[in-house]
Amino acid sequence: MALTTVFLISSILIICISPITAQSPPSPPLPPSPSPAPAPAPAHLNLTNLLSFAGPFHTFLNLLIQTNVIQTFQSQANNSDQGITIFVPNDSAFSKLEKPSLSNLTKKQLKSLLLYHAFPKFYSLSDFNNLSTHNPVSTFAGRQYTLNITDTNGLIQVASDWSNPKISSSVYSTDPAAVYEVNSVLLPKAIVTTAPALTPAPAPAPAPDLTPSSDLSPAGQKGSGAAPKSSESGNTNSSSRNIAAGAVVRLFAVVLGAIML
């Protein structure tokens, strides 16, 4: 009887516990690991807008648009791994050139001249010191069109065959594009065969003559040019009269002495 009671109690406990175990909810699945965020796309540089608002670079920009070189520069800046470095002459640099220097060029020569103002690689200002040890440096126009870079204590000059301008300012310098202002147009002998004629600078106004006049009279007024001669002539006549008077006095004394004897 006791054994039966124990078996019955055990069975009841198994029946009561089993549903609870069977109905326990499964643990929730772990959330998926987040995927890494995509790298931001590089900013698109619009060279036309940049050159429109900087400078003034209107002459250079108009030539770039006219020859479609702006598209070549734009593609190199945004669609290449090397980037681009552009030397942009300001409007004053073009005004120093007489018009025949550029107006006689063919379309091909003009395009090469514009490509001559760029390196097909990005260079910051700090890169020019090392770049100067690799002269001459080929430009976008080809290996036969080269420039020489010099960096003297931070003064960076870009030497072509007919000009040696300095970098006067950094307009834009963020990889992949660098734009630097230069104060002269870069001119290679392969395109411009003779030294360009430069428009002469206006002559300075003559300085006022501050030398005091030497013909002022004691009263502070200018006398005529004949005044000194007239004074000298008067002195001469006065001396002559004095000599004549002295001779008369001596003659009178001689006559008087003779009468008294």
UniProtKB/TrEMBL annotation:
It is a lipid-anchor; GPI-anchor. Residues 44-186 form the FAS1 domain. Residues 1-22 form the signal peptide. Residues 230-240 have a biased composition (Low complexity). It comes from the Eukaryota. It is found in: Cell membrane. Keywords: Cell membrane, Glycoprotein, GPI-anchor, Lipoprotein, Membrane, Signal. Belongs to the fasciclin-like AGP family. This is FAS1 domain-containing protein. The lineage of its organism: Eukaryota, Viridiplantae, Streptophyta, Embryophyta, Tracheophyta.
